[in-house]
Amino acid sequence: MRQPGPPSWSSIPKKFELAIICSVRIVDFFQQAALQAFMFYQLASYSPDTSESEISFQVGVLQGVFTAAQIVTSVIWGRAADSPTWGRKRVILASLIGQAVSCIGVAFSTSFATAVIWRTLGGAVNATVGGARTALFEKTEKKYHSRTSLLLPLAWNIANIFGPPVGGLLSDPVRYYPALFGDNSLFGGANGVTWMKTYPYALPNLFCALVLFADAVLVFLFLEETLKARQGRRDRGLELAAGLQQFFVHYVLRRSGYQSLNDHDPRQGTSLIDDGGSASSTSMVGVPKERSTTPPGREATNSSTLPRVLTKNIILTLTTVAFLDFQLGGFTALWSMFLSSEKRDPVSGPKPHLPFKFTGGLGFSPSVVGLAMSILGFVGIICQFVLYPRVNARFGLLRSTIYSLFFFPIAYVLAPYLSLLASNSDNQVVLWSGITLVALILIGARTFAIPGVVLLTNNASPSPEVLGTVHGLGAADIWPYGRREVVQQWFGERHCGRAVVVTGV
């Protein structure tokens, strides 16, 4: 008998559903990355007389309340994902729809207070972290986890390639695209597009909402439940998808002269990728083939109580995750503000005091901020497919993760020196080379750190039945993050690059 080969990307089963789960994290990262490209300018539009330092503080508050609300509700969502009543799929759907509504609210906000309310709602319903991570690992055998864990940083990289440029390019369309949306324009007529004049940053927010709603439809139609307690129950989304598939096969393809290779009963739809990983010839998705014999709720035993979940391994692992999330989130927040802040005037501006005190930022417009932030995604893709396989093969996952942590402070120390290049030199090649270097160091380290801590969290779970709760705790243990957002944005504007250096420390 032929022995199965070692795990590889080609041998991973259920690729279609893994792609759907990955898309959940992509759209979540997308809306957050897009918002960072224009958040500074949207807040400034509420009150043009507000100082840069106050706007920076408001940026920190907006990001802080999102994270704080996520911390408060993440364990609740994790418990819901483990319960037979909700399950993974319903939690993911609720999160996507809730965040889409939040984006619509931010789009039409006219004050800082209103934006805070909607961002708080978005954080409270954001359960994609725990839900998607749990479903991702439950879809595949443990031998594939070292590879499927790479889909999470891949989702972040993809979102950072497209999110910031889209957010920047769609910002204030009347100002930047007057021929299309301004007075006497193609789409605006004599008076321009009125709602775009009133809400100049509504368009990118609405686009993010559209992306989230579209992914919710994709999840509803094609994602199968991974929680054992809900497997075998009726899934109207899968039924609807199976019906649409059969309609397409019978009424569209056959009228065009095509015919199925074999007869297929529409009532017996099967998944495009079945449990064995083989492709179905006629149906994309369908109703589960057999019902579970396990009584509902049996899997949710007393082992899911929080005191039993919080083992020594879980506490140590979540502490590691907290430190990693703390510094990664802090740098991302400061980076967008650093790119947007005005450059220091080399003649009349305040002088920097090296090596820790810097003044000014890079002075980029929203579209250029989006381009600069997208470099993080491009570098991440390159590192993941070129650097990661070689380094991981030589040192292994654990050692690669440990070594990567030493590179983060290097990126944080170098980043504020870019303000010196921006204010003292007109050579854009040198400036963008510096930006790329910082991105390469930071994202190279992140590429190795994230899969490692995710696998550690997954393996530390005392039972598969509490995996949703464990990953929910993984989102909740970043409690310093919300408070840190506000403090670092305030500190960063007043002491410029010093806050970036402190993040690395």
Automatic annotation (TrEMBL):
Pfam families (UniProt xref): MFS_1 (PF07690)
This protein's GO CC annotations: membrane
Superkingdom of origin organism: Eukaryota
Location relative to the cell: Membrane
TM regions (residue ranges): 55-78, 90-110, 116-136, 148-170, 201-223, 314-338, 358-388, 400-418, 430-456
Keyword Ribonucleoprotein: no
PANTHER family linked to this entry: MAJOR FACILITATOR SUPERFAMILY DOMAIN-CONTAINING PROTEIN 10, TRANSPORTER, PUTATIVE (AFU_ORTHOLOGUE AFUA_1G13970)-RELATED
Protein name in UniProt: Major facilitator superfamily (MFS) profile domain-containing protein
